[in-house]
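Continuing the batch. This is chain 6 of the set; chains 1 through 5 are on the previous pages. Same settings as before, nothing changed between runs. Recording input and output for traceability.
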Amino acid sequence: MPVSAIYSGRPRRLASRLGALAIAFAVAACGSSPSPTPGATSARSWMDAGKPIDERVAALLAQMTLDEKIGQMTQIEIGGIDPAGVRSALLGSVLSGGDGNPKGPNTAENWYGMVNELQQGALSTRLAIPILYGVDAVHGDGHLMGTTVFPHNIGMGATHDAALVQQACRVTAAEMNATGVRWTFAPMVTVPQDVRWGRTYEGYGETTDLVSQLGAACLKGLQGKKLSDPDTVVADPKAYLGDGGTAFGSSTTQNQGVQYLLDQGVDRLDNATLEKLFLPPYENAVDNGARIVMTSFSSTQDGGKIHGDKHWVSDVLKIQLGFTGFVVSDWAGIDQIDPNDYGASVEQAINAGIDMAMVPYDWGRFESTLKALVNRGDVPRSRIDDAVTRILRVKFEMGLFENPMPPSGRWGQVGSEANRAIARQAVAESAVLLETSPGLLPIARSGTRVLLAGQGADDIGISSGGWTLSWQGQAGNVTPGTTLKAALADELGANLTYSADASFSGGTVGDVGIVVVAERPYAEGVGDSATLQLPPGDVALVAKMRPLVRKIVVVVMSGRPVMLDGIAGRADAIVAAWLPGTEDEGLADLLLGARPFTGTTPYTWPKSPGDAPRIGKTACQGAVYPYGYGLDASGGLLRTAACP
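Output for chain 6:
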């Protein structure tokens, strides 16, 4: 398809650090040599797969002009580039932003064709260095129609099941490969401390240990045993560092007419606290083979924007942790360092240790600015060579020079029955039973009249949330899957009656009412919330259902703990389903007793929005349900008792 049609352990780390220093000295030596003449020939020894990767990298680097090196450091969004542009810009990477899907049929075949055309543009350059294509596949390959969409990380955190997380991320990698994409901006290894943040659902939970464990599990699932193996993708732990600890009201960002409250804000914490709370998931990721890390939009109270903070990017990540892969900026994140001086921003970011810039559109501006900075000596050539060495090393490790594209034609592995079965299991393990009454659950499959209400009960888009087909996500049955309504209908048949707004005809009454209340899809700072309120219309359905049934089960679909005003005290059972994705049979399995409730809360459930920040609080301070709380179907505690 023409791209013109696209819509816009310390001992172990010590050894690693010594190796990184040796490479840095070698790169510095390379940087002192004159740049080769454009068009110069070589034996292309870097194409010899039998040679060590560092030898291949050094051979290729020695042939590169400054323009070619800066090109490798540039990443552009699909809406701002085509194959000819890839060639002209000598690009190292292209990405699809949250809305960067192919125009026309959103199929794996179209995706593959789009990526392949861009790859051919890169391979037609003088040195034929392949591009690395990236997407936000954060809960399955959510860009793609018909893919398996898993619960968002908040749900996966509620499972506390590292093996399942690894399995889900393995599925994600395989489905991505069918589209030709080999890089995902995941896993998110933030440790959110205030659930009013719109990215809470992207985090596995509020404890450092849980995030470290599950983040590493996902990374292993994505990358496999070796990055050049089939059906692997390179992972990208993000967003380094401290974005889950930004203070309420500290953000100055506005987007889509929304003033962000926490997202892209400031961590008002000292460095020791930042390192203790937020660094271990990255340390664990590096120890488990992370090759790319994305920096955070957030700022620290001492160092300003992370994108320009050499202490965190170079001194801590690259030297202290021994990270030898490359660091990529977030979407135009470099621009935020000094909004009034782009040149100063680029200089500070690259010198701080950013290796690849997610520009994301004006490649000419970035490349000419960085070239001028190098020619003036404001950015050392050794820093450029270090960045390019890191980028090339990852590309060689992935086998891109031997296989620039995965095998084509594997469209059938997208959304397969086996993959969806794994997602169904994840949905069942992720839901948390917050409250119940004796004898209510499981609901009997026969002889029980069930009334079902709430838009979210029959809406894949609501069930999946943000980062599903588009950045913000959208309501509607936007992609194939099984809603809770469909799953219950399969089991209950005529004993199930559904009305989205609980307007049941003829005074219909039932034995059990199920009401789905749901946040509507959002992503990032657009979802920052001062109130944590559910839509009033959804909450009103609980009162409307009450006189029609003997017992009510409320299913809450949300990207975080929310206020239960109008629900608590009226419902006989409350289930936190989080954002389960496309396989809501997992919820039906729990309600009807095919599977047991095993999920427990990955975040503290606050009493009020003002109780949301957790730093400095005890487990039950300002809490309704503490971290690790959940019930089985009989009402027995799974781990932790409710707060008094």
